[in-house]
Write a structure and sequence with these properties.
Thioredoxin-like_sf, 4-stranded mixed beta sheet, Glutathione_S-Trfase, Glutathione-S-Trfase_C_sf, 53% helix, Glutathione S-transferase Yfyf (Class Pi), Chain A, domain 2, 2 domains, alpha+beta, Glutathione S-transferase, transferase
Length: 204
Amino acid sequence: MKLIASMSSPFVRKVRIVLAEKKIDYETVLENVWAADTGIGRYNPLGQVPALQLDDGEVIYDSRVICEFLDTLTPVGKLIPPTGRERAAVRCAEALADGVLNATVLTRLETVLREPAQYNADWVARQRLKVSEGVAGLARGLGEKPWYAQNHLTLADVALGCALGYLDFRQPDFDWRTAHPNLARHFAKLSQRQSFIDTVPPAA
């Protein structure tokens, strides 16, 4: 398998952590989606990473789809419950964490890539509100439990860790640790796992 990736993408990081936790071998193909000559369209018509090219050439894209597929390949380190409310709880937490990521990415694009004359402060404020409310929702969901949704690591924890890590990476001025000490403790625990250590994004 080949993972089409950008090492700064939090969605790629989520897939890389899942691959590591599942102990699945793969090859990384780096792709700069912002380059004029990018080849990402060969893998994903939406021009986004991650994409996963299987050994027969078929390509799967969208991090949620890829992670769900990977979890079916081996019973090692099962990350998504098979059915019912337990499964829904994990997928809902992943959706919330991904929403935080999306709003963070959109904020960065608006503040870094947008021409100053086109900058929309109200729109950025709306995205920042999504981030703060989303993080608060994750804190409520975690509570004082040792893991987000089960008695072991699940995709909910992976997605949460990627969201918080990306906030540190791209919005270091957002002090989520003071407001949500339970998230701070959980993120510190996750950050000690080798899968998280090996996937820290490169310095900007």
